[in-house]
Design goal:
With 375 residues, this protein is α/β, with parallel strands linked by helices. It contains 14 helices and twelve strands. The chain folds into two domains: 237 residues, Type I PLP-dependent aspartate aminotransferase-like (Major domain) (Aspartate Aminotransferase, domain 2, 3-Layer(aba) Sandwich), CATH 3.40.640.10; 126 residues, Aspartate Aminotransferase, domain 1, CATH 3.90.1150.10. The protein is globular, with a radius of gyration of 21 Å.
Amino acid sequence: MIPFSKISITELEKKYIEESFINNRICGDGIFTKKCNKWFKDYCNIDNFLLTTSGTHSLELAALLAELKAGDEVLLPSYTFVSTADAILLRGAKPVFVDIDKRTFNIDANLLEEKITKKTKAIFIVHYAGIACDMDKILNIAKKYNLIVVEDAAHGVLAYYKDKPLGTLGDYGCYSFHETKNFVMGEGGAIVVKDNDKFQEAEIIREKGTNRSQFIRGQVDKYTWYEVGSSYLPSDILAALLYGQLSRSKEILQKRMLVWNNYNKRLEELEKEGKLIRPYIPDYAKHNAHMYYIVLPTEKIRDYLLQNLKNNGIEAVFHYIPLHTSPMGIKLGCKKGSLPVTEEYAYRLLRLPLFPDMSIDESNYICDKIFEILK
């Protein structure tokens, strides 16, 4: 069986995890958390960066900082993981789903303005597969209507819009380091906060609503409760694992890109024959080989290919069920048929195995089987 995803752990990660125990401080914001912060500063020029316990918690923290409340409306794609919508609903706000661009599977920026009302407070965008949304257009619309922009960049660590890292263009950027992502810490995430004052607030909320971070830095002689918060900071053991991954980031990206490029080259012929559609990369986007997907002509063909790949020991998978068609979406008053592109393309997409230690021979075997099945 060729698995869909498989983590790449070396002696370096194990060494750093062991060091985290030796340091005798394994709670949040320890030595390796600081090393991760510095890495993102040095390599991505990100100052206001905080590790969190998950990408989900990063989105929830962004919703808190955006001060979403009952009566507010938030625009977002339906083709995303539930955490994007949950963060909005937990604040009492209303998610308003927008259709996607069929080329990128990102929110269709051309449809945003028709969804904006006096109640609209924010736009939550998702960089699907690490391929950037049309950020200039989105940011211009947000500026025109005074809207907050939250980037769900769970797929987008070390991917770029033009020359800017995804997660750094909006008011808040949210990363995931779940074991299925490019760089892993088991469960974990991060938030990037553009405004310095909001960053100070983020530190407080993340530390149970206290100014403990300032106390640890020696900025105050005692810490106390400032506002409602929770515990959003991960153990330094997990940060040690992540720092090992970040230290190997060039290697990990190169390995993933080799597989991605091989898929893309091998499957070009089938695209020309109309058997499938390969990923579309806009000129403004520099992706991170997070995912390789193909789009089949129909849902029936997608399911047929999926089953036959499985029969040949290949764990390919589909992706999100559109949120507006889910049981929860129906409870919210959403209706099937309201987002035609999302509904059509979600059921035609198939993701292929892709992980750092995957061999070219394995990707060639998968391509051979796709040719054999679709031909």
